[in-house]
Design brief:
It is built from six helices and five strands. The chain is of the alpha+beta class. It has one domain (22-147): 2-Layer Sandwich (TATA-Binding Protein). The chain has a five-stranded antiparallel sheet. The radius of gyration is 16 Å and the shape is globular.
């Protein structure tokens, strides 16, 4: 019975990921800036490398355009990413990991990231389920912690 329930949870999770084209979203209780700041602090606390913070809203202002808060945080750990690239080198197109923090039209803040299981499908990754599951767990934990 336990295996059936786990199978259903995995299937439903996979269907929701496919419905969102492989993007997982998490609602935040903070502003976009505070959420991004919190995410970076938590990632650094977990000894992840934060390579870049790309503030698209600031860049839009530079070209006289208006954009709601939209920031991409690029981060990762070669101890996790490298084994994934060994399984399927093409996945390097999607590495390091990225999290999008944005404010929607209703003023709600969201975090979004690529579902590692979608990357598995996209890049035909085989033999790396343990790494993909670890990445899924880390992304879920980081985004949920930053959202609270």
């Amino acid at each position: 019975m336990k295996k059936v329930i786990i199978g259903l949870v995995v299937a439903l999770t996979s269907l929701s990921a496919l419905a969102g084209e492989g993007v997982v979203t998490v609602a935040s209780t903070h502003s976009a800036k505070d959420t991004a700041d919190k995410f970076v602090a938590i990632a650094q606390e977990k000894r992840l490398n934060v390579f870049a913070r790309i503030n698209h809203q600031e860049n839009a202002v530079k070209v006289d355009m208006t954009l709601r808060p939209t920031e991409v945080i690029v981060f990762g750990n070669p101890k996790v990413g490298t084994p994934l690239m060994i399984c399927a080198q093409e996945v390097a197109l999607d590495l390091p990991q990225k999290v999008l923090v944005y404010e929607d039209a209703e003023g709600k803040t969201w975090l979004a990231y690529n579902d590692p299981m979608y990357l598995k499908q996209r890049h035909h990754i085989e033999g790396c389920d343990e790494v993909l599951n670890k990445i899924s767990g880390v992304l879920g934990n980081l985004t949920n912690a930053a959202a609270k």
